[in-house]
Every structure is written in structure tokens, then in C-alpha cells.
Amino acid sequence: MSVEIDQSGKVEQLDTNTIVALANDFSSAIFISASSKRRLFLRLRSSKVPRNILYPQIFAILIFLALKGLRTFPSILFIDEEYTGKDKIIRDLLLKLIKKARAKWSGEIRFKLVGKQSASHKLAWGLHNKTLKTKYLKTNEIETLKYLK
Q: CA nearest 144: which of 76, 43, 74, 71?
């Protein structure tokens, strides 16, 4: 079983909400508000982590949080290429978080252009621009900070 993952409203855009959605046979999404992102980055301002690494790390954490609530875990994750050249950062942190939560997971993480016709893009965009009225998960900066340690 595989799943595609897409983001609407980039993590670093502090004036808009961010939705990370995954879809194929099932769907799930995670939401972080613009105000929560601003508070998160205020807390991380003194961090020694460079911004160009921090954004992909937060993206990986949001992916993990969207996956965390699933009963059955997909064997292949197709992640949209949101942060060109940062695939290794996203993969490494995501694998670390998944292995910690599900010690026996032996799936794959692949990066590709998901495209506007994918179910994950339609879900992320629909939730972001509020044309979809689906219940979805919410997260906050405290939960996100927990996984950065």
C-alpha cells in the first residue's frame, strides 16, 4: 500500500495556514495555523538550526503527525518535492520518527512531483482554501517542538 503526500501553504509562509495531506486508499491531513507557525518560529529564533534545514525538518514532523494516527501504515510514502535538495534531511528525520514509533516498519520513502491531479494535492488544497469541509487533525507548536529535539 502506498500513499502520496502534499503540502498546501508552505511551512515558512507565516501569513497562511499549512495543511499536509496524505491520500490514496484513505486520507488524512494535519493542520497548523499561521499564528501557531509564528509562535513556533519565535521560539526557534534562538535555535542554532539554520532556517534552510529547519523548514524541511518541520515539514517532516508534520508528515509524521499526519501518519501517526493511521491504523495501517503505508509501505511506500511518495512525498511531493517541496524542498528541492533537502530530500535527505526530510527522509532521515521522518525515518527516525517512524522507527521510534513503529520499530518494525520497513517501508520506503520516495520523492516525486505529486501533481495537481493527485488526491493528496486536492485534499490539501481543498482544506487550505476551505472548499472542503472535512474534519482534519490539528496540531500546535508545542507538539511540533517536541519532535525537533
A: 43
Are 137 and 143 a contacting pair, CB within 8 Å?
Answer: no
Angle at 130 between CA 124 and CA 136, to 5 degrees: 55
Longest dimension (CA), the chain: 41
| pLDDT for res 144 | 66
The answer, as to whether pTM is greater than 0.85, is: yes
Rg (CA), the chain: 14
Buried b (16+ CB within 10 A) or exposed e, 99-125: eeeeeeeebebebeebeeebbbbbbbb
35: alpha, beta or left, given left = phi > 0 and alpha = psi -120 to 50? alpha
Question: What was the pLDDT predicted at 60?
Answer: 94
pLDDT higher than 90, residue 83: yes
What is d(CA 149, CA 136) in angstroms, rounded to the nearest whole number? 26
Geometric angle at alpha carbon 50, from 48 and 56, rounded to 5°: 125
Cell of 83: 524542498
User: What pLDDT does residue 126 have?
Assistant: 86
